[in-house]
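A quick aside before the break. I want you to see a complete sequence-to-structure record at least once, exactly as it would be stored in a machine-readable document. Don't worry about memorizing anything.
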Amino acid sequence: MRRIVIVGTGTGGTLVANRLRRALTPDDASIVCVDRDDDHLYQPGLLNVPFGRRTLSSLTRSRRAQLHPHIELVLGEVDTVDLEGRAVSLADGTALRYDALVVASGATLAPEETEGLTGPGWMERVFTFYSPAGAAALADAFARFSAGRLVVAVLDTPIKCPVAPLEFTFLAEDALRHRGVRDKVEITYVTPLDGAFTRPIASAHLSGLLAERGIGLVTALATASVDGAAGRLTGYDGRTVDFDLAVVVPVHNGAAFVTRSPGLGDALGFVTVDPKTLQVPGHPEVLALGDVTDLVTSKAGSVAHFEGDVVVENLIAALDGRPAPARFDGHTNCFLELGGGKALLIDFNNDVEPVPGHFPGPVGLPLLSPSRLDHLGKAAFESLYWHALLPGRPLPGISRDMPRRGKKLSMLHHPSTTGAHP
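That is the input. The structure line, written in C-alpha cells, reads:
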C-alpha cells in the first residue's frame, strides 16, 4: 500500500490530510501525520488575547480531533528527511517511509537572533503576541499601560500573517481611546518595508488610516538590536526609536530539520519549492505548503488554504506517475481589523495587487474599504476554520485562483498607484 506522510498538522497540514483522505480510500493509501504535540492552536486568535477578548484555552483544540478517523497521528520531533531514501526520521529513532511527502511544519520564532531582544526587559516592557506565552504576558502589561510611548515593530521579514502587526496597532489605539488615555500615549508603527504594506495601493490606504488615527509610521527600518532596559530599538542604519512599551514581531525561521536535510531547503529552514506546483525540485513526490515554504507569497492562513488544492492534486498525480496538473497563482486573502467594529479586506495574487472592489465577485465583501461587514466576516471565519476549512470541505464561492470579477483593476494603471515594490 502507498504511504503518504505529512509533517505538521497546523492549518495547511490538517486540511491537506483531510482532503487527501476524502480523495483516496484507505485501500488507496495510508496517511500518517507527524507533529510534536496534540495542541492545535487557532493562531489568528492570539491577536485578541492581549485585549482580554480571548483566552489561550479557548483557542486550542486536539490535533487528533481535527483529523479524519482513518488518518494516523504520530507525536514526535522530526530529525531529518532523507529525500533519496524517502524516509522521515524522528528524534526517537523512528523512521517513517513514504511514497509521497508533504511538509507543512510552519515557521518558528527566533527572538534570540536579534541582539538584546531576550535580555533585560523581555516580557517586562518588550513583548510579542505571536506566541501564546507572549500574548498572555502582553495582556497583563497592556492592561496596566496608560501613558508613554507604545511602539509596534516588525523586526525583519518574512513573518507569519503580515497584516497582524497592523491589526494590533489599530486595535491598541482603539482600546486606549475607549479607556480614555489615548491622548497620553504616543503610538508608532515600525517596519522594515518601505511602506505600511508591501503593495503600493494597499500601502497608501493603510498609511492613510494610520495617519487618521495619529499613529506614527517609521519605514525601511530593519532592527539590529533591542535594548529593553533603555527602551530603545536601533536599526542597522543607526536610526533609533524609543519606547516605554514595545510589541515586536521577532525574526522568523523555517524548521530546524529542514536545514539538516540535504536538498530540502535553505539555511533558514524554509523548503524550496516550485512556486507554481509547490513541488521540491527534482522530487515531484515531495510537496510543501504554508509558512515553511520559501515563496515570496504572504505567510498567511488563506495562502495555505489555497495552496492545499494544488498540493492535493499534484500529490495524487505524482503517486500515479503523472505530471503536476495544478498551478498556484499566489492567491492571498486577509481581513485586517481596524477597531471600532470595522475591518478591511484585501485580496491579491502574484500578478495583481490589492485594489478596491468586492470579493468574491461584483456582489460581496468590500475590498480595501473599512466596513462593519468585513468585521463580521472575520468574526465568522473562526467557525468556518474549525468546521469547514480544517475538515477539507469546500468554502462556497471561494476558489484557489484569485477572482478578478468585482475588482477595480483599472486602478493598477493609474500613475499615483506606482512607486512601492510589489
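Two observations worth writing down. DSSP finds eight helices and 25 strands in the chain. Helices lie at 11-23, 63-66, 132-144, 164-178, 200-212, 256-259, 301-319, 372-389. We'll return to this after the break.
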